[in-house]
Design goal:
single chain; alpha/beta; Nucleotidyltransferase, domain 5; 2 domains; 5-stranded mixed beta sheet; 11 helices; 12 strands; 40% helix; 20% strand
C-alpha cells in the first residue's frame, strides 16, 4: 500500500488544485485546473476525473496506482455522509452529495472535508504542526478560515460548521459588515480585505500615509501594501497593523483558553508578513491567555503554503485506511 498514491484535491471557486501523494505524505506530482462552475457545477467532478486520467497517462501509470481521493471543499461539510451543506460560488445546490458525485466520476473511494480543516490536517501531518495532535490552524487570506484538531481528529460540530474562527466576533459594537451577515467578525479586521478596510477608514480621516500615493496612482491598495508601509514606519499603517495584531491575539487567546492546543498555526497570504505579524500577535496572545495556556500553547507560521490543502485532503484517505 505504501507504494500506492492518494489523490489530494483542494477545490476552490476559481481553481482546483490536485496532487498525487504517497502514503508517507510526499507529493509526487501536483497541478491545477480551472473550476468550471457553469451549469450548476455539473462539470466539476467530471473534469476532476478527466484530469486525473490524463495525468496518470502522462506519467505512465494506470488507475490501479491510486487508492482513493480526498477533497477539501469550501463550506461546511457533513463528513460522515460526504455532503456539502452550504455552497458558495460553485453552482451546486445546498446539501450537495459531493462524495457520491466524486466517487461516481472517478471510480475511487472518496472522503470530503471542509477546505480549512484540510489545511489544518496538512499542517498537522507534514507542516508546522510537527505531528501535534491538538492543533488550531487559522488561514488569513481574503477571508479568515479555521480548522480545529483535537486528539488527531478534526472537530466538525453537530452541523459540520465548527472551526469558523473568522466569524468569531472581534468587535462587539461598531464593527464592519461581514459577508456572513454579521458585523464585527474577526474576518473584518484580520483578513487581507479587513486590513485594507481598516486602512481606508484611517485614510478617510485625512491622515497622512504613503498609502495615499497608492490610492492616487492605482485607485486602491492591497494588504501587502499596508504591511510594507508599516515596515517602513508609516504611522497610519503601523496603527492598522497594531489593531490587527490586537484582535488576532485576543481571539487566539480565547480559543486557546478553551482548547489548550499544542500549537496554533497561522497561514494564508497575510501570514507571509512572517515574524513582523507573528511577534505582535504573540505579545497580545500572551497578554490575554490563561497562564497555563500561555506556557504550553505555541504560535507558529504555516510552512506548507498552497500544498497544505492537497496534503490534508490526502490525509483523509490515509486516515480512513488506517482505521
Amino acid at each position: 500500500m505504501s507504494t500506492k498514491w492518494i489523490v489530494g484535491v483542494d477545490l476552490g471557486g476559481t481553481t482546483t488544485k490536485l496532487a498525487f501523494v504517497t502514503f508517507d505524505g510526499v507529493i509526487v506530482h501536483k497541478w491545477e485546473i480551472p473550476t468550471d462552475n457553469t451549469d450548476e457545477g455539473k462539470n466539476i467532478t467530471i473534469n476532476i476525473a478527466k484530469t486525473i486520467d490524463e495525468k496518470l497517462n502522462e506519467l505512465g501509470q494506470t488507475k490501479d496506482q491510486l487508492i482513493g481521493i480526498g477533497m477539501g471543499a469550501p463550506g461546511p461539510v457533513n463528513y460522515e455522509k460526504g455532503i456539502l451543506l452550504n455552497v458558495v460560488n460553485l453552482g451546486w445546490p445546498d446539501n450537495y452529495p459531493l462524495k457520491e458525485s466524486l466517487e461516481a466520476a472517478t471510480s475511487l473511494p472518496a472522503a470530503i472535508e471542509n477546505d480549512a480543516n484540510c489545511a489544518a490536517l496538512g499542517e498537522m501531518w507534514m507542516g508546522a504542526g510537527g505531528g501535534a495532535k491538538d492543533l488550531v490552524c487559522v488561514t488569513l487570506g481574503t477571508g479568515v478560515g479555521g480548522g480545529v484538531i483535537a486528539g488527531g481528529r478534526v472537530v466538525q460540530g453537530i452541523n459540520g460548521a465548527a472551526g469558523e474562527i473568522g466569524h468569531i466576533t472581534a468587535v462587539p459594537t461598531g464593527g464592519g459588515q461581514c459577508n456572513c451577515g454579521k458585523t464585527g467578525c474577526l474576518e473584518t479586521v484580520a483578513s487581507a480585505t479587513g486590513i485594507v478596510r481598516l486602512a481606508r477608514l484611517e485614510l478617510a480621516k485625512g491622515l497622512e500615509s504613503e498609502l495615499s500615493a497608492k490610492m492616487t496612482e492605482n485607485g486602491t491598495f492591497t494588504a501587502k501594501d499596508v504591511i510594507d508601509a508599516a515596515r517602513n514606519n508609516d504611522r497610519l499603517a503601523k496603527s492598522v497593523m497594531n489593531e490587527v495584531s490586537f484582535h488576532l491575539g485576543f481571539v487566539l487567546a480565547s480559543i486557546a483558553n478553551t482548547l489548550n492546543p499544542e500549537k496554533i498555526v497561522l497561514g494564508g497570504g497575510v501570514s507571509k508578513a512572517g515574524e513582523f505579524l507573528l511577534n505582535p500577535v504573540k505579545s497580545n496572545f500572551e497578554k490575554y491567555a490563561f497562564s497555563a495556556v500561555r506556557d504550553s500553547t505555541k504560535l507558529a507560521l504555516a510552512t506548507l503554503g498552497n500544498d497544505a490543502g492537497v496534503l490534508g485532503s490526502a490525509w483523509l484517505i490515509k486516515n480512513k485506511l488506517n482505521q
